[in-house]
Task: inverse folding
C-alpha cells in the first residue's frame, strides 16, 4: 500500500512527462515485436492488440491518482464556469455569505449561552434544593438556616448538602481603595460538596463556622490577581470584609467562581429564624444515585418539617433541580433558541434563493449538459460536476460568512458592553468549534441548494435538449418553473414568520421606550451603598449616614438635590410582612423605602393628598395599591403597619396617593401595587443614592465617590452611573433582541425579494417569444404588466395564505420576550403583509417593465 | 489481488494466476513484456495464451506493488525495451502464491478423481 503510494508520488513528481513516453514506447515495442513474429504482419498484430490509446489510458490511470485528478479538474472547471457568470456568482455568494455569517455568529452566541461553565467537575451531579410554596405557587424560594440544618442531618440519599447566601460585600484594607465584591457566605462543607480545592491555602473547616472563631475569607483567583497582583504571601494577611477583619486562608483556582460569579467566600453564619429564607441549598447526588429517590426523600423531610413547624413551613416543599438549570444563562436560553431558529430561516431562504438562481441558470445550460452527455459523460459525473460547482459557491459564501460572523460578534460585544455585570460567557470569539461549524454548514448548504437543480439538469435528455435549441421551453423547463415557484412560496412563508417576529419585537421595544416611567429620569446620578452591620449597628447610624451623605452631595457644585431609596425606578421593590387596618389580615406588602425628597427629586406630584415628611409615621401608596385594596374608598387617612418577626409595629397613616411609577425590572410595563415608606421609619443598609444634577450626571461620578469617602473611607460607592444608563441596561435584552430580529428579518426580506425577482426575471426571459407574440397581436404594455404581475403575485399570495396562520402560531413562542404587545398583534401582521407585498411588487417590477420593452420583431426572430 | 482494471478476460487462465506465472517466468532473469508472454506460451506448450490487455496491467500492478522492478534497456534486436526483474518482495510473494496454488491444485485433483 505504502510502496504503491510512494511510487505513484515519485512518478507524478519526477517522471510525469516520462511516464507518457514510457507507456507509449513499451506498447509500441511490443507491437513491433509482434508484427515481426505473426503472419499477416502489422495489420494482424494491431487487430489482435486492440486500441493502444485506450490501453495506454488504463495504464496511465494506474500510475496516477486518477480519481483525485478528475476531482481537481471538476473543481477548476467549476471555478471557471462561475467566473464566467460573475453577476450570478456575486449575488449567490453574497446571499449564502449573509446566511452563513448570521448563522455562525448566532451559533457562537448560543454555544456561549449553553455551555456556560459553572467551573464544576461534575456539574451534572450537583442539584439545587429550592423551596416551593403551595400557597403562592412560587417554586424558587430559598431556604432558612434551620431548614438547611434539618435537611443536612436527615437526608441520606445525597453525598452532602451545603448552603450559601450571595450578597455584595465591601472590601477594604489599608493600602488600596475600597471595592465592592460579590461574596458567597457558604457553609464550611461547600467546597467539599461541589468538589473544589483551593489552589493556595486550605479549605474551610467546620470550626471556622463556630461562634468566636477567627473570621476567615477565601479569595477568588480574579481578586487575588486584580486586587493583590498575585501576591505569593497573601495567605494570613487580613482584609476588612464589610468592616470585619478577616484572615485570608485560601485562593481558589482560575475560573472557579461557584456558586455564582463569586469573588470571595466567607463562612455562613448560623441563624435560628426559620422564616428567613435567604439561603440557597445545593447538594451532590451520589454517582449511582437518581433524582427520583432524592426527591422522594426531600418530600418526606419537607412534610415532617411542615408538621413540626406549621407556623413557618406549612405548604412548603422542596424543589430539586440540576444546578445548571437555575444559574447562568439558563433563563435566556429560550430567547437564543428562538434567534437561532430565526437565523436558520435566513439561511434556508438564502439557500432557496441560490437554488432558484441555479435552476434558472440550469435551463440555459441544458445544451452544455447535453453535449457533455453526448460525448460520454455519465449522469453521476454530471451530477458531481454540478454539486462541486454549488459547493464552490457555498464555500466562497462561507469565507464571506466567516468575516461577517466576526463582525457580528464584535457588534454583539459592543451592544452588551453597557452591561454592568456582563456575564463571563458573553465574551465571545470565533473559536475552533465555530470554525468547524462554519466549514460544515458551508459544504452542507452547497449540497442543499445545489442538489435539486443538479438533479434536474443531470436528468436532461440529449434529444429533447438538442431539439429544443437549449431554451428549455419544453417539459424540463416547466418542471423547473414549478420547482422555482415552490421555492419562492417556501421563502415567503419563512419570511412572514421572521417579519412577524421582528415586527413584534420592534413594537415591544417602542412600547418600552415610549411608555412613561412616571418619573423624569434625565440628569439623575445613581449609586449604591451597602452599610455593613459591624460599623453601622443601630438604625440611628444608618439615618446619620444618610443625613451626612445628603449634606455632602448637595454641597457639590452641579448637584441640585439628593434622595435615597431602597430601589430606583424599574429596580423592583422590597417585600415586607404587614397588615391593613381595614381588614386586619397578615399579608405580604410590596414597597419601597425612600426619603421624602425622593418625590420632588423625580418631579412626582401626589394625585391625592400629600407626600409624607421625613419624621412622620406615614406612608404614600401608588394608584394601583389604592385601587387594589380600597376600591371606591378614600385612601387618605387609612392605616397599615408592618410586622417584624410577627410583632406588629406602629400604625402608619396614608397621607397621599401618587401616580404609578414603573418598578418591575423584568416585565417593565406591568404595574404593581406599592407602598412608599419613609426611610426614617425603616432605615435600610442597602440603598440607592440619587442625585438630581444640573450637568451631565456621569461627570459627577468621581466627585460623588470622593464625598462618600470623606464620610467613611472604607465604604465603596458602587454602580455609580446615570439613572438613564441603568434603565437602558434593563431594556438592553429587548433592544438587542429586537435589533437582532430586525437585522435577520431585513436580510430575509431582501433575499426573498431577490428570489422572487430571479424567478420572475427568468420566466420573462423564457417567455420572451410568447410576450413578443402577444405584443405583435396587439397586446398593450398594461396587458404584459398584468401578465407578469399575476405570475409573480401567485407565489406571494400562496405564501401569505400559509405563512400568516403559521406565524400566528409560531409567535406564541415569543410571548415571554414581548412587552405590551400580544403575539397576535393585528397591526404588526397588517404591516408584515404590506411590507411583503411591497417587496414582492418591487421584485416583480423590474422584470415586468423589461417585459413591456420586448421588441416583438427581435423576440420572434430569436432562434 | 484481482484489482486489475483489465477490461479483457484471460480466457483460459484461472483468475489471479497470471501474476504468479509472470513472477515465475521472471525467476529465470530479467525480461521484457513481449518475451514474458512468449515464454509463458511456449513453456505451457501453447496452451496458455497471454493477451496484451491482461499482461501489461498485470505487469504495472506488480511493479506498483513492489514485487517486480523495471529498467529500460536494449532488446536482443537493439531496440529500447522495458525490462522487468524480480525483487526480494516478489520472491516472497511467489513462494506464497505457489504454495497456495499447489494446495488448490491438489484439492481440485482430489475432487476430480
Result:
Amino acid at each position: 500500500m505504502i510502496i504503491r503510494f510512494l511510487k505513484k508520488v515519485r512518478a507524478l513528481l519526477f517522471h510525469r512527462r516520462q511516464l507518457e513516453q514510457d507507456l507509449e514506447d513499451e506498447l509500441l515495442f511490443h507491437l513491433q515485436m509482434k508484427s515481426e513474429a505473426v503472419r499477416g504482419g502489422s495489420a494482424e498484430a494491431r487487430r489482435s492488440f486492440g486500441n493502444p490509446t485506450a490501453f495506454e489510458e488504463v495504464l496511465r490511470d494506474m500510475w496516477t491518482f486518477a480519481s483525485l485528478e478528475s476531482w481537481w479538474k471538476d473543481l477548476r472547471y467549476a471555478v471557471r464556469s462561475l467566473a464566467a457568470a460573475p453577476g450570478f456568482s456575486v449575488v449567490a455568494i453574497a446571499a449564502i455569505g449573509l446566511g452563513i455569517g448570521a448563522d455562525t455568529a448566532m451559533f457562537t452566541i448560543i454555544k456561549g449561552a449553553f455551555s456556560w461553565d459553572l467551573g464544576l467537575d461534575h456539574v451534572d451531579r450537583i442539584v439545587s434544593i429550592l423551596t416551593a410554596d403551595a400557597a403562592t405557587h412560587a417554586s424558587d424560594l430559598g431556604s432558612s438556616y434551620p431548614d438547611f440544618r434539618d435537611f443536612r442531618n436527615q437526608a441520606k440519599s445525597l453525598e452532602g448538602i451545603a448552603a450559601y447566601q450571595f450578597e455584595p460585600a465591601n472590601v477594604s484594607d489599608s493600602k488600596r481603595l475600597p471595592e465592592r465584591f460579590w461574596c458567597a457566605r457558604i457553609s464550611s462543607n461547600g467546597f467539599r460538596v461541589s468538589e473544589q480545592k483551593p489552589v493556595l491555602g486550605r479549605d474551610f473547616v467546620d470550626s471556622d463556622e463556630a461562634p468566636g472563631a477567627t473570621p476567615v475569607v477565601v479569595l477568588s483567583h480574579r481578586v487575588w490577581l486584580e486586587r493583590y497582583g498575585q501576591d505569593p504571601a497573601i495567605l494570613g494577611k487580613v482584609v476588612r470584609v464589610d468592616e470585619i477583619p478577616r484572615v485570608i486562608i485560601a485562593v481558589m483556582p482560575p475560573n472557579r467562581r461557584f456558586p455564582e460569579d463569586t469573588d470571595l467566600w466567607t463562612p455562613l453564619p448560623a441563624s435560628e429564624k426559620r422564616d428567613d429564607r435567604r439561603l440557597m441549598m445545593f447538594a451532590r447526588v451520589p454517582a449511582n444515585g437518581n433524582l427520583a429517590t432524592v426527591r422522594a426523600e426531600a418530600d418526606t423531610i419537607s412534610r415532617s418539617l411542615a408538621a413540626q413547624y406549621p407556623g413557618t413551613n406549612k405548604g412548603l416543599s422542596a424543589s430539586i433541580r440540576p444546578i445548571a438549570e437555575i444559574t447562568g444563562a439558563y433563563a435566556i436560553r429560550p430567547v437564543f433558541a428562538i434567534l437561532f431558529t430565526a437565523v436558520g430561516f435566513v439561511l434556508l431562504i438564502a439557500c432557496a434563493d441560490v437554488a432558484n438562481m441555479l435552476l434558472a441558470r440550469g435551463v440555459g445550460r441544458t445544451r452544455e449538459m447535453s453535449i457533455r452527455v453526448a460525448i460520454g459523460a455519465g449522469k453521476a459525473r454530471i451530477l458531481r460536476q454540478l454539486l462541486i460547482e454549488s459547493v464552490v459557491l457555498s464555500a466562497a459564501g462561507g469565507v464571506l460568512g466567516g468575516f461577517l460572523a466576526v463582525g457580528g460578534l464584535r457588534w454583539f460585544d459592543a451592544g452588551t458592553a453597557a452591561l454592568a455585570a456582563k456575564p463571563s460567557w458573553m465574551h465571545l470569539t470565533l473559536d475552533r468549534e465555530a470554525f468547524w461549524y462554519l466549514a460544515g454548514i458551508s459544504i452542507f448548504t452547497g449540497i442543499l441548494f445545489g442538489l435539486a437543480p443538479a438533479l434536474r439538469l443531470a436528468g436532461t435528455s440529449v434529444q429533447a435538449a438538442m431539439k429544443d435549441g437549449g431554451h428549455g421551453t419544453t417539459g424540463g423547463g416547466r418542471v423547473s418553473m414549478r420547482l422555482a415557484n415552490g421555492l419562492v412560496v417556501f421563502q415567503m412563508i419563512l419570511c412572514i414568520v421572521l417579519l412577524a417576529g421582528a415586527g413584534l419585537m420592534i413594537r415591544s421595544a417602542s412600547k418600552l421606550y415610549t411608555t412613561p416611567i412616571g418619573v423624569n429620569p434625565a440628569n439623575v446620578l445613581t449609586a449604591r451603598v451597602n452599610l455593613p452591620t459591624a460599623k453601622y449597628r443601630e438604625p440611628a447610624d444608618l439615618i446619620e449616614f444618610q443625613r451626612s451623605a445628603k449634606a455632602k452631595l448637595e454641597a457639590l457644585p452641579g448637584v441640585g438635590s439628593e434622595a435615597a431609596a431602597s430601589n430606583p425606578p424599574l429596580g423592583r421593590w422590597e417585600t415586607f410582612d404587614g397588615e391593613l387596618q381595614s381588614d386586619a389580615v397578615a399579608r405580604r406588602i410590596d414597597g419601597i423605602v425612600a426619603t421624602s425628597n425622593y418625590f420632588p427629586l423625580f418631579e412626582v406630584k401626589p394625585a391625592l393628598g400629600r407626600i409624607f415628611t421625613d419624621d412622620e409615621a406615614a406612608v404614600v401608596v401608588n394608584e394601583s395599591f389604592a385601587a387594589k385594596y380600597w376600591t371606591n374608598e378614600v385612601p387618605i387617612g387609612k392605616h397599615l403597619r408592618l410586622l417584624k418577626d410577627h410583632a406588629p409595629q406602629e400604625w402608619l397613616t396614608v397621607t397621599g396617593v401618587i401616580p404609578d411609577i414603573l418598578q418591575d425590572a423584568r416585565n417593565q410595563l406591568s404595574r404593581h401595587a406599592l407602598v412608599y415608606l419613609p426611610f426614617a421609619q425603616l432605615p435600610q443598609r442597602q440603598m440607592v443614592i440619587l442625585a438630581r444634577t444640573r450637568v451631565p450626571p456621569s461627570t459627577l461620578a468621581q466627585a460623588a465617590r470622593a464625598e462618600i469617602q470623606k464620610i467613611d473611607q472604607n465604604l465603596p460607592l458602587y454602580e455609580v452611573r446615570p439613572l438613564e444608563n441603568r434603565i437602558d441596561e434593563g431594556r438592553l435584552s429587548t433592544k438587542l433582541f429586537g435589533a437582532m430580529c430586525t437585522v435577520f428579518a431585513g436580510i430575509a426580506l431582501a433575499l426573498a425579494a431577490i428570489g422572487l425577482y430571479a424567478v420572475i426575471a427568468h420566466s420573462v426571459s423564457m417567455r420572451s417569444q410568447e410576450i413578443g407574440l402577444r405584443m405583435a397581436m396587439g397586446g398593450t404594455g398594461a396587458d404584459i404588466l398584468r401578465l407578469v404581475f399575476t405570475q409573480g403575485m401567485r407565489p406571494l399570495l400562496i405564501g401569505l395564505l400559509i405563512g400568516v396562520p403559521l406565524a400566528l402560531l409560531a409567535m406564541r413562542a415569543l410571548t415571554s420576550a414581548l412587552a405590551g404587545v400580544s403575539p397576535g398583534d393585528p397591526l404588526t401582521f397588517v404591516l408584515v403583509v404590506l411590507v411583503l407585498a411591497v417587496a414582492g411588487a418591487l421584485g416583480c417590477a423590474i422584470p415586468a417593465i423589461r417585459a413591456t420593452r420586448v421588441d416583438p420583431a427581435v423576440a420572434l426572430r430569436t432562434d | 489481488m484481482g484489482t486489475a482494471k483489465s477490461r479483457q478476460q484471460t480466457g483460459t487462465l484461472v483468475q489471479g494466476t497470471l501474476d504468479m506465472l509472470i513472477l515465475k517466468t521472471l525467476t529465470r532473469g530479467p525480461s521484457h513484456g513481449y518475451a514474458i508472454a512468449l515464454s509463458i506460451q511456449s513453456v505451457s506448450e501453447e496452451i496458455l495464451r497471454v493477451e496484451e490487455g491482461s499482461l501489461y496491467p498485470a505487469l504495472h500492478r506488480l511493479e506498483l506493488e513492489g514485487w517486480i522492478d523495471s529498467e529500460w534497456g536494449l532488446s536482443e534486436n537493439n531496440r529500447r525495451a522495458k525490462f522487468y526483474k524480480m525483487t526480494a518482495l516478489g520472491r516472497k510473494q511467489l513462494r506464497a502464491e505457489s504454495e497456495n496454488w499447489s494446495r488448490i491444485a491438489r484439492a481440485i485433483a482430489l475432487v476430480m478423481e
In short: Confidence is low (pLDDT under 50) at residues 469-475 of chain A.
